[in-house]
Amino acid sequence: MRTLYVGNLPWATSEEELARAFASHGEVLSARIITDRQTGRSRGFGFVEVNDADADQMIAAMNGAELGGRILTVNEARARS
């Protein structure tokens, strides 16, 4: 399993929409959108956990792709230090 960072998400994107956008390029294990603790509003980025074998193909396909009128930034998530 690998985790992909997805930036520049439209504010109204749901976790289901995010998973669906990536699922056409491989197996999606989970998707989550990061929200502001106080307002509950999307912070405009999220993470998608994917099958290890599909990760590079997904990054190539989705980095620079358009979702809801915005151009996505996709790369492998870095571990917190």
From TrEMBL:
Residue ranges of domain RRM in the record: 2-79
InterPro entries assigned to the protein according to its UniProt record, in alphabetical order: Nucleotide-bd_a/b_plait_sf (IPR012677), RBD_domain_sf (IPR035979), RRM2_NsCP33-like (IPR048289), RRM_dom (IPR000504), SLIRP/GR-RBP-like (IPR052462)
Keywords associated with the record: RNA-binding
Entry's transmembrane regions: none
Native organism: Moorella thermoacetica (strain ATCC 39073 / JCM 9320)
Keyword RNA-binding annotated: yes
Pfam families: RRM_1 (PF00076)
Name of the featured protein: RNA-binding region RNP-1
PANTHER family: HETEROGENEOUS NUCLEAR RIBONUCLEOPROTEIN 87F-RELATED (PTHR48027)
MF GO annotations: RNA binding
